[in-house]
């Protein structure tokens, strides 16, 4: 496959450099360009000024990767991300967790299709399923729609705690456990949050928080 001369490098995120990754090897052969193996710890040493790196991530390995490196989502923000081996459609909050997501491939996608998509990404395009593109478009439209919302909103301390939990992607049950309150109380707080922010759902509330609350 023809690849432009633009100096972008492709890296596969893996826990064990000694392990044989036959699946990756086959894709690499189809691409006819090198794919460097990168352990998570090496991401911390990457120069932030080098913005031409693409990181290939096996979605099925994410639990092990996050267990070994809990701050991985912060570290890979300097990369363009390609996910593969995705088993089912992702929720919007999980999609945006990957930051600069350029490509997504499901388990059902063939190796030639993945190689074609990666080649397009290397040449500057995106390769995302239509549903994912629609989710991202809806999410960022919400951000634009609420960008004029006043930052000073009369939220209680508990409501701020709940909205912070929302930003992490926590469910109502998880929020209840984290804050030592009942799930009914969580729902009551969410109702008040939505009303005060003039938003309709969790996605819009999170978009408001990302826009207006200091990290």
From TrEMBL:
DNA-binding in keyword set: yes
Alphabetical UniProt keywords: DNA-binding, Transcription, Transcription regulation
UniProt-listed SMART domains: HTH_LUXR
Domain HTH luxR-type: 148-213
InterPro entries for the chain: CsgD-like_REC, Sig_transdc_resp-reg_C-effctor, Tscrpt_reg_LuxR_C, WH-like_DNA-bd_sf
Example of a GO biological process term: regulation of DNA-templated transcription
GO molecular function: DNA binding
Annotated protein name in UniProt: DNA-binding response regulator
């Amino acid at each position: 496959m023809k690849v432009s001369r633009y100096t972008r490098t492709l890296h596969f995120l893996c826990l064990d450099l000694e392990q044989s990754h036959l699946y990756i090897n086959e894709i690499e052969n189809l691409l006819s360009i090198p794919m460097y193996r990168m352990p998570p710890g090496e991401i911390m040493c990457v120069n932030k000024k080098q913005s031409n790196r693409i990181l290939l991530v096996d979605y099925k390995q994410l639990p092990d990767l996050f267990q070994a490196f809990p701050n991985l989502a912060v570290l890979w923000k300097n990369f363009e991300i390609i996910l593969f081996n995705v088993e089912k459609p992702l929720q919007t909050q999980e999609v945006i967790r990957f930051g600069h997501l350029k490509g997504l491939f499901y388990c059902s996608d063939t190796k030639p299709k993945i190689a074609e998509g990666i080649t397009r990404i290397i040449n500057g395009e995106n390769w995302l399923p239509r549903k994912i593109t629609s989710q991202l478009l809806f999410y960022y439209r919400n951000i634009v729609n609420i960008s004029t919302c006043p930052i000073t909103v009369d939220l209680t301390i508990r409501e701020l705690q709940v909205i912070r939990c929302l930003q992490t992607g926590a469910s109502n049950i998880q929020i209840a456990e984290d804050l030592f309150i009942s799930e009914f109380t969580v729902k009551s707080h969410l109702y008040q949050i939505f009303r005060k922010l003039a938003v309709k759902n969790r996605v819009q509330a999170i978009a408001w928080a990302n826009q207006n609350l200091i990290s």
